[in-house]
Amino acid sequence: MLLCVVVLFAIEFYDVATPAPTPAMDLDANGIQPRTVDGLDGILWAPLLHFGWPHLISNSLPLFVLGWLLLAGGLRQFVGVTAVVWVVAGAGTWLIGAPGFHVGASGVIFGWMVFLLLRGFAQRSVAQVLLAVVLFFYWGGMLWGVVPGQPGISWEGHLFGAIGGVVATWLVARSTRRKVSRAEPGTLAR
């Protein structure tokens, strides 16, 4: 996760160090531009881009901590959950987002947070439920970011990131149940 955060800082450093000659050539113009064909590729790039150092710094700690907690479930789960959250957050923002460019890792952060809050219940794991309780008490207030209200904040990215977290939880739980129900003859199911 440290490498991921370092990459985001390197991208922002490049963005700041190489000012674009026109606004259309600005690196942040590669974000999601809702309901435009040109804005579709922003679904891939938006979580990697930030509107300046304060934006990136505010995303760095939750990105590192939540990503690290998600990685504890294994690299395969981390990649799968991240992919689902990334695409759902981006596509939803593209569909209903306010005009302008939407960038930042917060959609992914919201998806990871919701996944970590729900994973323990879906997998019936007491340890994961306890982790969810701690996370909720520490960062649960961030969930208010899914409602409109703060100008300049993409509540659409937050909302669809959270929805992506729900979808990822469902997919992981379904996959886990399928593995458990297919126990070989002569073996005990978990």
CATH topology label = Rhomboid-like fold
Low-confidence stretches: none
Rg:
18 Å
In terms of quaternary structure, what is this? single chain
Please report the number of helical segments.
Answer: 7
Shape: globular
Q: What proportion strand?
A: under 5%
Secondary-structure element string: HHHHHHH
Instruction: Report the average pLDDT across residues.
Output: 89
CATH architecture, by name, is: Up-down Bundle
Protein name: Rhomboid family intramembrane serine protease
Subcellular location: Membrane
Main location: membrane
GO cellular component, one term: membrane
Task: Please give the structural blueprint.
Layout lengths: L1 H16 L24 H4 L7 H19 L3 H22 L9 H17 L3 H14 L15 H27 L9
Helix pairs in contact: 1-3, 3-5, 4-5, 4-7, 5-6, 5-7
Keywords: Hydrolase, Membrane, Protease, Transmembrane, Transmembrane helix
GO molecular function, one term: serine-type endopeptidase activity
Subcellular location: Membrane
Describe this structure in words.
This protein has 190 residues and is an all-alpha fold. It has a single domain, classed as Rhomboid-like (Rhomboid-like fold, Up-down Bundle). It has 7 helices and no strands. Helix 5 (106-122) runs parallel beside helix 7. It is globular.
Short overview:
The protein is mainly α. The chain has seven helices and no strands. Belongs to the peptidase S54 family.
What would the keywords be for this entry?
Rhomboid-like fold; mainly alpha
